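Hi L., both proteins are below.
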Amino acid sequence: MKKSAAVKTVLVVGLCMFAGVLSVQCGPVQPVGGEPPLAGNVPTAGTDNGAGGNKAIVTLPTTAGTGGSAGLSSGTDNAVPASADANCGIQTSAATPQPVDLLLLLDRSGSMADDIATDNPCTGGLGGRFGAAPCSPKWPAMTSSLNQVLASSPAAVQWGLKFFSSPKGQACTVSPGADVAVGPNTAAKIQAAMAGTSPENNTPTMAAINAAVAYFGAVNDSLAHYVLLATDGLPNCDPGTSGVVTNTSVNDAANAIAAAFNAGMKTYVVGIGASAGNLDDFARAGGTGHYFPATSPDQLTAALGSIVVAVTSCTFTMAAVPPDPNNLGVYLDKNTRVPANAENGYSLGADGTTVTFSGSFCDGIRNGTYQVMQVYFGCPSGASPPEVIP
């Protein structure tokens, strides 16, 4: 089977007295219509024809009886319980990664029209640098790279866009709000916004970060909020002014980024072009360690893609609350049982419907090492879930 780069998530549920939806009891499967009992609740073979591709699975026989268990038909993605006593039946349903909000804070200063490799001004459009060697201006490179990354970005990463400086014609100011609000399916809006503007003016980084914090402060969607700061140089606007340009230090912008981090927003930093400088102070203040240098279109695309991977959620929403939260089996790719550990394992959300992976397990989900996530619901006072899912 060809594996998708995205994690396929499956929730494996042991059904125990779900009132109002399906009432079943834990215990062996009872015979139906005079048929002999099913020894050991032996499954039969079935096939999962879901979006992730066909795979061989096992399917419980469809059986039901008074006081017994409800088996599942062969049309669903099913799994085998550890034993007839541990679970009354197995049902599977989709478990989806929780969305995250990612606001691209994009420098549109005049130098974004210069060559990404040398920072020399481009003359004659894309045809040359000073009319000679080929030139790759940063702004078109950013547009192209962003289009590629948006096309492959997981649906759970909800993009937004904020330019700085803004509005057009203002050298050192940043207008409130976002040019494209964070949310689902924003790629076309972001592409239109990029096409509708061009590089000009200066680099008011501190004001941009403060505007991003204010914007996210008004976004009450209970999701994780991230900032992607993409800039081609250090700040060159005096804090609190609308037009005075100086060679100020990065401290004011770094302090603003640190304040954003303390408010719950991590900031990832991309330095575009040869003269962007060392922006590690910004990345450290934002809780992300190191900035991503980009002196070529390919390097820029790779940097944006890496950040998408880094922010991809490791929290999954389940379709039901487990009957016994202390009797769960959480698995990756069926053969890796994940321990209940907040630092390197999984933790169950306070509402009982979310599972969050951490440490090496979260890393494996993000980089595609793990393809399938499953949760096995054990019945109250039942046997422990198995070490692997068949």
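That was the first. Here is the second:
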Amino acid sequence: MLPGERKENEILVHICCGPCYTYPHQWLIKNGYGPTGFFFNPNIQPFREFRRRFETVEEYARKTGARAIMRDDYLLEEFLKGAFEYEERGKSRCEFCYRWRMDETARVAAEMGFKRFTTTLLSSKFQPHGLIKKICRESAEKYGVEFFYHDFREGEMENVRISHDLRLYRQKYCGCIFSERDRYQRRLVREQGETYQKK
């Protein structure tokens, strides 16, 4: 192959975390695709959490021989600025987050000669599936590549099993500081309510 050329079956896969990549990675291989992972997640905070997820993807790649392109950009200021700007315009900060990551995935796919891309965000029942599909299609059109859609939620239990077997770190919240706050704030309110009811 010439530089920049890729086989017809190759696909760039945006990875939001190691465990979420396990089933999509294996499904794609079983169905004749040649996946290369792409870790780009400037939404993950704090820094120690970001590094742990980064290292978990590297660990999965080492243990399985998976190919992965790893971006270690910790773009905290850019993420917060973009999230707040979206909210000021009446849009959700999550939409900004998805769009930034999918635009970058589509851009890198085009630049590196991949004809198509997909994302492990499609493996989570907690993510807005319809919105992610819409944004992926818009990113694909913007950069002249294909968006490959498959509902990877079917492999939820396989994700859990494989990551457990490989002893991969499984995170407790989506990634950004807002989701971390919401998760633990809800738990605190629930615990305080249970304590109040016992009195």
